[in-house]
Design goal:
- By secondary structure, the chain is an all-alpha fold.
- The chain has two domains: 92 residues, no CATH class; 90 residues.
- It has a two-stranded antiparallel sheet with strand order 1-2.
- The longest helix has 23 residues.
- It is rod-shaped, with a radius of gyration of 47 Å.
């Protein structure tokens, strides 16, 4: 932004010098804004180039290189037009000095390091929602219980249940329905032990106590429910 402002100031000063001649000789010409452009040195003397000074971080800006170069080219053309129309020698010298400074600005823009890539921290992706767990379908549960009914002995009924229970999710109502196929407490406790690991509503386990008339069986039932079926 400072470079662009300097170029505009140069163009304004050159236009003013093209219309009015200076009133007295001077070793240097002061342009509006305090910028000073000295006359070129005598032949045989080189123009000293000041060492570039580090620019504070707060004064650094980001500009488009191509747009900046196009504007410098337009300013340079305008100064050349002013040079061709100015007959005053001192005015021509001032415009020539302005053009030299504009050339330095163009070189500065050409040599400017490219802007490093900006890394934007993307927000972490949201974790996928947990899978929806649903109880066994009525059709599938009916198919399992019908297969158990066809068996005559409790051992065979439990064999079928042990094969399907780990792969399905049950409710307390499902356990109560299966318990109706068994007469002995040990078999009923085994049913609860097999179905408890995939029970979706253990908070309703109190409903199972009605299937066990004896206190000892109720105590074992409580242990199975609290251990998740590992008792």
């Amino acid at each position: 932004m400072k470079a662009l402002t300097l170029a505009v100031v140069l163009l304004s000063s050159a236009a003013a010098l093209a219309q009015t001649a200076p009133t007295k000789a001077a070793d240097s010409v002061n342009i509006a804004g305090g910028a000073e452009f000295r006359r070129p040195p005598p032949p045989g003397h080189s123009t000293p180039h000041p060492m570039p000074q580090p620019v504070p971080q707060r004064n650094q800006i980001v500009v488009d290189r191509e747009q900046m170069e196009r504007r410098i080219d337009r300013l340079e053309k305008a100064l050349r037009d002013a040079m061709s129309r100015t007959r005053d020698a001192k005015g021509r010298d001032s415009i020539r000095n302005a053009m030299e400074e504009l050339d330095k600005l163009s070189e500065y823009v050409d040599d400017a390091a490219p802007l490093p890539p900006v890394v934007i921290n993307q927000p972490a992706p949201m974790p996928p929602p947990p899978p929806v767990v649903r109880p066994i379908s009525d059709q599938q549960f009916r198919s399992i219980t019908q297969a158990m009914v066809r068996e005559s002995f409790p051992r065979e009924k439990l064999r079928i249940l042990s094969q399907v229970a780990p792969n399905e999710n049950f409710l307390v109502s499902h356990i109560l329905s299966v318990l109706g196929q068994f007469s002995f407490s040990n078999d009923k406790l085994e049913v609860v032990r097999l179905m408890r690991p995939t029970l979706l509503d253990p908070q309703n386990g109190y409903q199972l106590y009605q299937a066990f008339p004896f206190s000892n069986d109720k105590a074992q039932l409580q242990a199975i429910l609290e251990s998740g079926g590992r008792y």
